[in-house]
Amino acid sequence: MNVLFLCTGNSCRSLIGEAVFNHLAPAGWRAFSAGSQPTGRLNERALRLLADKGVSTEGCYSKSWDALPLTPDIVVTVCASAAGETCPAYLGPVLRSHWGVDDPSHVEGSEEVITAAFERAYAILRTRIEAFLALPLEQLANDRARLEAELDRIGTLLPA
């Protein structure tokens, strides 16, 4: 099963989703990330945060959804449309879900405020990915509607 974490710039939130998913996923599951308008570079704070959490970013790079190595089975958009972001719409025969997360790279303020925003984005994505991987995936593999409903429900979860 291949999961695509998609955002506009593919430098921060989608990177975190890709790296955390691959860190936690069982054998046979793989995540990728991409953007509709990639920045061409990964966010340094996001890379530091993941390194501090012991999550590898080896092989990660900012790329366009046109440059994917394969077609995903599931696409998870992570842009925060409530914040006025335009969320890219991946076209193709895939299961889609939206897990909006505020972009910590746009937060301004003290070092503490910015760090807290990155920690929050990480915590939200990790909570949702853990919930995704805890689903009875073998049972849901043949029930697309139920899997989509579960993924949409997970997209509303926040860390405790």
Automatic annotation (TrEMBL):
* UniProt keywords, alphabetically: Arsenical resistance
**Domain called Phosphotyrosine protein phosphatase I: residue spans:** 1-135
Protein origin, superkingdom:
Bacteria
Q: Which SMART domains match?
A: LMWPc (SM00226)
Protein name per its UniProtKB record: Arsenate reductase ArsC
Originating species: Massilia phyllostachyos
